Amino acid sequence: MTGTDLGTWAAGLPITAAVCLVLFGAAFVLGAARGRHRVVDVVWGPAFAAVALTSFGLSAGHGDPGRRTLALVLTAVWGLRLGAHIGTRSRGKPEDPRYEQLLDKARGSRLWFAFTRVYLLQAALVWFISLPIQVVQYGRSGLGPQTAAACALWLLGFACEAVGDWQLARFKADPANKGKLMTRGLWRYTRHPNYFGDACVWWGLFLLGADQWAGLCTIASPIVMTLLLTAGSGMRLADRHMSRTRPEYAQYARRTSGFVPLPPRRR
């Protein structure tokens, strides 16, 4: 195991937390002004990139340059692509039904409810899930043998997510597919290639610091991300929504894996 400058890392945690609060606070102001809180989804990916960039600056002189640079680049590429994709997809769209249903439960001020239950919650999740990226940049040794496995897993996840999003966007853009269900490409093997890709990306980023005890101690972060994608606001809600709105989705779900890409089941 290699050493980590834990003192400097711990001193930087309040700063990265403040970055998350500022970003999601600004998103709240924008969402409240527009009356659409789906803007928070656009900020989600870039917020991870901002935390990685902040940690990169704070760890200068304390961590290995190669380790710091790789963590920053992988996180930024993933986060900025995701933000750009969601921003393009949601442009001109009404409020996300998830947030409408959530805000219907508000007792009292809907804005305060949205601020605490949507924006503050996501700020806390970004900070916690990004702990592997924060701690890996303070590792003193160079990149270890696990780096190749980490990058391969990240690349698998990034490819699944990016290709799946591209295939779905292209499918929806074709007028001939209006009213049809996307069951081609990666979507033939998993109902949620983007969520599976997300999980792989964060397990890959966790592996970057798996050669140090401090990095191993952040294993709860990719676990939380995976649970969010599978049992939280990810595939569970998506499956529920699609089952209510698309009668043919039940048959698609019976033959198609929900998460890990697998050959379609026989009918």
UniProtKB/TrEMBL annotation:
Superkingdom, taxonomy of origin: Bacteria
A cellular component annotation (GO) from this entry: membrane
Pfam families: DUF1295
Annotated keywords: Membrane, Transmembrane, Transmembrane helix
Gene3D superfamilies referenced in this protein's UniProt entry, alphabetically: 1.20.120.1630
Name listed for the protein in its UniProt record: DUF1295 domain-containing protein
Annotated transmembrane regions: 6-30, 109-129, 213-238
InterPro entries per record: UstE-like
